[in-house]
Amino acid sequence: MKEQPDAPIIIDEAQRSPKLALAIKKIVDRNRRKGQFVFTGSSNVFTTAEVADSLAGRMQTLKLWPLTTAEVNRASASRLIDWAMQSAPTLSQISDPAHLERKGYVDLILMGGYPELRALPPQPRQRQYRDYIDAVVDRDVADVMPVRKPDAFRFLIDQMAARTAQEINTSELANWQSSNARQLISTSIFSCVSHWLPS
Fold it and tell me: Where does the AAA domain lie (predicted)?
C-alpha cells in the first residue's frame, strides 16, 4: 500500500458483507478518485435496494460472462447487430454460418461456457455443474434472499433452464411439481422475478 498508494484495494466475495457498502460510501464521499476499490464475487449483493441507493453514482458493475460460441471456436465476434443497424443492409454482406450437425449443437450446450469445465469428460463435468448450482442455491442466492426449500429452488432452476428464450409461464412451472409444492414454486418464481428484474 505504501509503495503503490494509488493501487486499488481488491476485495473478493464482496457480497458476503452487505454492510461493506456503507463503509465504502464514506470513503468515496471523502475522496472521489475513481478506481479505489475492485470488488469481485459470484453474486452481486449491491443490487439490493438499500445498498444500490447508498452506492448510486459511485460504482460501475462489470459482468464476466461464460465463453460465447465464437470464443469457443476461436472465431471473430458476430457483427449481426452492426449489420442490421446499417442504413441499407443486404444479405450478401452476411457470410454463411459454419456447418454444424445436430450433435455439434448438443455438445456445445452440454459443455457450457466455463473454460475449465469444458475440458472435463462428461460425467465429471456434469458433477461440477451440479455442484455449481448447489453453491448458487445454498450460498449466493441465500446472500440476497431467503431460500426456505433449497430442493424446490434447484428444481425451479432446472425447469427454467429448460425453457431458455421462452416466456415465463408460472402456472406451467408450478404444475410440474406435486400439489403441496406448487405454492412454493409460484412464490419462488415471484420472488426471483421481483428481485432481479426491473420494475
Answer: 7-72
